[in-house]
Amino acid sequence: MKDKIIVFTDGAASGNPGPGGWGCILRSGSTVTELGGGEAHTTNNRMELYALIAGLEKIPSDHAEDILVYSDSSYVLSGAEKNLSNWKKRDWKTMSGDPVKNQDLWKRLDEILQTLKNKITWNLVPGHEGVPGNERCDEIAVTFSKGGEADLYSGDAKKYKIDLTYTPSLGGKKSKNPWYLSLVDGKLEKHITWCECENRVKGKRGVKFKKVASQYEEDKTLESWNYKK
Protein backbone atom coordinates (compact mmCIF):
# COMPACT_ATOMS: atom_id res chain seq x y z
CA MET A 1 0.00 0.00 0.00
CA LYS A 2 1.41 3.38 -1.00
CA ASP A 3 1.85 6.23 1.44
CA LYS A 4 -0.82 8.88 1.50
CA ILE A 5 -0.05 12.34 0.15
CA ILE A 6 0.28 14.90 2.94
CA VAL A 7 -0.42 18.61 2.48
CA PHE A 8 0.16 21.21 5.20
CA THR A 9 -0.89 24.81 4.53
CA ASP A 10 -0.95 28.18 6.25
CA GLY A 11 -1.39 31.85 5.41
CA ALA A 12 -0.61 35.18 7.03
CA ALA A 13 -1.42 38.83 6.48
CA SER A 14 -0.33 41.91 8.40
CA GLY A 15 -3.12 44.45 8.73
CA ASN A 16 -5.64 42.10 7.09
CA PRO A 17 -5.76 43.50 4.45
CA GLY A 18 -2.07 44.23 4.14
CA PRO A 19 1.15 42.48 3.12
CA GLY A 20 0.59 38.74 3.12
CA GLY A 21 2.26 35.41 2.56
CA TRP A 22 1.45 31.73 2.28
CA GLY A 23 3.29 28.49 2.93
CA CYS A 24 2.70 24.88 1.98
CA ILE A 25 4.40 21.53 2.50
CA LEU A 26 3.66 18.67 0.12
CA ARG A 27 4.87 15.14 0.80
CA SER A 28 4.22 12.77 -2.05
CA GLY A 29 5.95 9.40 -2.11
CA SER A 30 9.61 9.81 -1.19
CA THR A 31 9.71 13.54 -1.90
CA VAL A 32 8.93 16.63 0.17
CA THR A 33 8.39 19.99 -1.49
CA GLU A 34 7.98 23.31 0.30
CA LEU A 35 6.09 26.08 -1.48
CA GLY A 36 5.57 29.71 -0.61
CA GLY A 37 4.91 33.20 -1.87
CA GLY A 38 3.46 36.55 -0.98
CA GLU A 39 1.34 39.49 -2.09
CA ALA A 40 1.64 43.18 -1.30
CA HIS A 41 -2.01 43.72 -0.40
CA THR A 42 -4.20 40.79 0.60
CA THR A 43 -6.05 39.11 3.47
CA ASN A 44 -5.31 36.21 5.74
CA ASN A 45 -8.18 34.16 4.28
CA ARG A 46 -6.94 34.64 0.73
CA MET A 47 -3.46 33.52 1.72
CA GLU A 48 -4.82 30.48 3.56
CA LEU A 49 -6.86 29.54 0.51
CA TYR A 50 -4.04 30.19 -1.94
CA ALA A 51 -1.71 27.92 0.06
CA LEU A 52 -4.16 25.03 -0.35
CA ILE A 53 -4.57 25.70 -4.06
CA ALA A 54 -0.80 25.81 -4.60
CA GLY A 55 -0.34 22.47 -2.87
CA LEU A 56 -3.15 20.63 -4.63
CA GLU A 57 -2.07 21.99 -8.02
CA LYS A 58 1.22 20.13 -7.63
CA ILE A 59 -0.54 16.76 -7.38
CA PRO A 60 -0.94 15.04 -10.77
CA SER A 61 -4.55 14.15 -11.52
CA ASP A 62 -3.61 10.53 -12.23
CA HIS A 63 -2.23 9.91 -8.73
CA ALA A 64 -4.34 7.37 -6.89
CA GLU A 65 -3.09 7.96 -3.34
CA ASP A 66 -5.43 9.47 -0.79
CA ILE A 67 -4.66 13.02 0.31
CA LEU A 68 -4.47 14.27 3.89
CA VAL A 69 -4.84 18.05 4.14
CA TYR A 70 -3.87 19.82 7.37
CA SER A 71 -4.77 23.47 7.96
CA ASP A 72 -5.51 25.71 10.93
CA SER A 73 -8.09 27.65 8.89
CA SER A 74 -11.72 26.77 9.62
CA TYR A 75 -12.64 29.16 6.79
CA VAL A 76 -10.75 27.10 4.23
CA LEU A 77 -11.68 23.64 5.48
CA SER A 78 -15.38 24.30 6.01
CA GLY A 79 -15.54 26.01 2.64
CA ALA A 80 -13.82 23.19 0.79
CA GLU A 81 -15.56 20.34 2.58
CA LYS A 82 -19.07 21.68 3.15
CA ASN A 83 -19.88 25.03 1.52
CA LEU A 84 -18.36 24.78 -1.94
CA SER A 85 -21.06 22.59 -3.48
CA ASN A 86 -23.85 24.77 -2.07
CA TRP A 87 -22.21 27.96 -3.32
CA LYS A 88 -22.09 26.50 -6.82
CA LYS A 89 -25.77 25.52 -6.68
CA ARG A 90 -26.66 29.08 -5.67
CA ASP A 91 -24.55 30.57 -8.48
CA TRP A 92 -21.79 31.55 -6.03
CA LYS A 93 -24.09 33.20 -3.55
CA THR A 94 -24.26 32.69 0.19
CA MET A 95 -27.48 31.65 1.96
CA SER A 96 -28.22 35.34 2.52
CA GLY A 97 -27.83 36.04 -1.19
CA ASP A 98 -24.52 37.88 -0.96
CA PRO A 99 -21.69 37.11 -3.39
CA VAL A 100 -19.19 34.60 -2.02
CA LYS A 101 -16.00 36.35 -0.93
CA ASN A 102 -12.76 35.33 -2.64
CA GLN A 103 -14.90 33.83 -5.37
CA ASP A 104 -12.01 33.73 -7.87
CA LEU A 105 -9.96 31.47 -5.61
CA TRP A 106 -12.89 29.25 -4.65
CA LYS A 107 -13.66 28.68 -8.34
CA ARG A 108 -10.01 27.85 -8.94
CA LEU A 109 -10.04 25.37 -6.06
CA ASP A 110 -13.24 23.81 -7.36
CA GLU A 111 -11.63 23.20 -10.76
CA ILE A 112 -8.69 21.45 -9.10
CA LEU A 113 -10.93 19.27 -6.95
CA GLN A 114 -12.87 18.25 -10.07
CA THR A 115 -9.71 16.92 -11.70
CA LEU A 116 -8.31 15.05 -8.69
CA LYS A 117 -9.47 11.46 -8.39
CA ASN A 118 -7.94 11.22 -4.93
CA LYS A 119 -9.94 10.94 -1.76
CA ILE A 120 -9.24 14.00 0.39
CA THR A 121 -9.46 13.99 4.18
CA TRP A 122 -9.66 17.50 5.64
CA ASN A 123 -7.99 17.96 9.05
CA LEU A 124 -8.20 21.05 11.24
CA VAL A 125 -5.09 21.50 13.39
CA PRO A 126 -4.56 24.10 16.13
CA GLY A 127 -2.47 27.03 14.96
CA HIS A 128 0.66 28.04 16.87
CA GLU A 129 0.38 24.97 19.08
CA GLY A 130 3.58 23.16 18.22
CA VAL A 131 2.42 21.02 15.28
CA PRO A 132 5.66 20.94 13.24
CA GLY A 133 4.10 20.99 9.77
CA ASN A 134 1.81 23.88 10.69
CA GLU A 135 4.61 25.80 12.41
CA ARG A 136 6.88 25.47 9.36
CA CYS A 137 4.14 26.66 6.99
CA ASP A 138 3.51 29.62 9.28
CA GLU A 139 7.24 30.41 9.24
CA ILE A 140 7.27 30.39 5.44
CA ALA A 141 4.09 32.50 5.21
CA VAL A 142 5.31 35.12 7.67
CA THR A 143 8.70 35.37 5.94
CA PHE A 144 7.07 36.13 2.59
CA SER A 145 4.54 38.50 4.18
CA LYS A 146 7.49 40.57 5.44
CA GLY A 147 9.03 40.71 1.98
CA GLY A 148 11.65 38.06 2.70
CA GLU A 149 12.66 34.96 0.78
CA ALA A 150 12.23 31.67 2.62
CA ASP A 151 14.73 28.87 2.07
CA LEU A 152 12.33 26.30 0.61
CA TYR A 153 13.19 22.60 0.80
CA SER A 154 12.72 20.20 -2.09
CA GLY A 155 14.11 16.70 -1.95
CA ASP A 156 14.27 13.39 -0.13
CA ALA A 157 11.55 12.97 2.49
CA LYS A 158 13.96 11.01 4.71
CA LYS A 159 16.28 14.01 4.92
CA TYR A 160 13.50 16.47 5.72
CA LYS A 161 13.87 17.76 9.28
CA ILE A 162 10.18 18.51 9.94
CA ASP A 163 8.13 15.65 11.41
CA LEU A 164 4.97 15.60 9.30
CA THR A 165 3.49 12.72 11.32
CA TYR A 166 3.31 14.88 14.46
CA THR A 167 -0.33 16.00 14.54
CA PRO A 168 -3.05 15.84 17.21
CA SER A 169 -5.06 13.35 15.14
CA LEU A 170 -2.04 11.08 14.73
CA GLY A 171 -1.07 11.09 18.37
CA GLY A 172 1.36 13.97 18.56
CA LYS A 173 2.22 14.58 22.21
CA LYS A 174 1.69 17.97 23.74
CA SER A 175 1.91 18.87 27.39
CA LYS A 176 -1.33 19.55 29.26
CA ASN A 177 0.65 21.93 31.46
CA PRO A 178 2.20 24.68 29.32
CA TRP A 179 5.04 26.80 30.62
CA TYR A 180 6.42 30.26 29.91
CA LEU A 181 9.76 31.43 28.56
CA SER A 182 11.27 34.81 29.28
CA LEU A 183 14.45 36.32 27.89
CA VAL A 184 15.77 39.34 29.76
CA ASP A 185 19.23 40.83 29.14
CA GLY A 186 20.21 37.68 27.28
CA LYS A 187 19.29 35.39 30.19
CA LEU A 188 16.60 32.74 29.70
CA GLU A 189 14.25 31.56 32.43
CA LYS A 190 11.32 29.14 32.45
CA HIS A 191 8.20 29.76 34.52
CA ILE A 192 5.37 27.52 35.60
CA THR A 193 2.84 30.36 35.77
CA TRP A 194 2.18 33.50 33.77
CA CYS A 195 2.37 35.54 36.96
CA GLU A 196 6.02 34.56 37.43
CA CYS A 197 6.83 35.39 33.83
CA GLU A 198 4.96 38.69 33.95
CA ASN A 199 6.78 39.78 37.09
CA ARG A 200 10.11 39.24 35.34
CA VAL A 201 9.35 41.07 32.09
CA LYS A 202 6.92 43.80 33.14
CA GLY A 203 8.23 47.31 32.65
CA LYS A 204 11.47 46.20 30.99
CA ARG A 205 12.55 47.00 27.46
CA GLY A 206 13.80 44.58 24.85
CA VAL A 207 12.46 41.50 26.63
CA LYS A 208 10.93 38.47 24.97
CA PHE A 209 8.40 36.03 26.39
CA LYS A 210 6.10 33.31 25.16
CA LYS A 211 3.83 30.51 26.32
CA VAL A 212 4.84 27.05 25.02
CA ALA A 213 3.39 23.57 25.42
CA SER A 214 5.96 21.23 23.88
CA GLN A 215 9.71 20.85 23.59
CA TYR A 216 9.40 21.40 19.86
CA GLU A 217 7.56 24.67 20.45
CA GLU A 218 10.20 25.77 22.95
CA ASP A 219 13.02 24.93 20.55
CA LYS A 220 11.38 26.85 17.69
CA THR A 221 10.78 29.84 19.95
CA LEU A 222 14.38 29.97 21.07
CA GLU A 223 15.50 29.58 17.49
CA SER A 224 13.37 32.55 16.45
CA TRP A 225 14.95 34.52 19.32
CA ASN A 226 18.44 33.52 18.08
CA TYR A 227 19.08 32.10 21.52
CA LYS A 228 21.56 29.26 21.83
CA LYS A 229 21.37 26.94 24.83
In short:
It contains 6 helices and 9 strands, in the order E-E-E-H-E-H-H-E-H-E-E-E-H-E-H. The protein is an alpha+beta fold and 229 residues long.
Topology:
Elements: E1 5-13, E2 18-28, E3 31-42, H1 44-57, E4 67-71, H2 74-89, H3 103-115, E5 120-124, H4 132-145, E6 154-156, E7 179-184, E8 187-191, H5 194-201, E9 208-212, H6 215-224
Helix pairs in contact: 1-3
Radius of gyration, whole Å: 19 Å
Contiguous runs where pLDDT drops below 50 for at least 5 residues: 169-173
Supply the helix-strand structural class.
alpha+beta
The number of distinct β-strands equals 9
Quaternary: single chain
Q: Could you tell me the mean pLDDT?
A: 89
What is the terminal separation in angstroms? 42 Å
CATH homologous superfamily of the largest domain, by name? Ribonuclease H-like superfamily/Ribonuclease H
Overall form: globular
How many helices does DSSP assign?
A: 6
Overall number of domains: 2
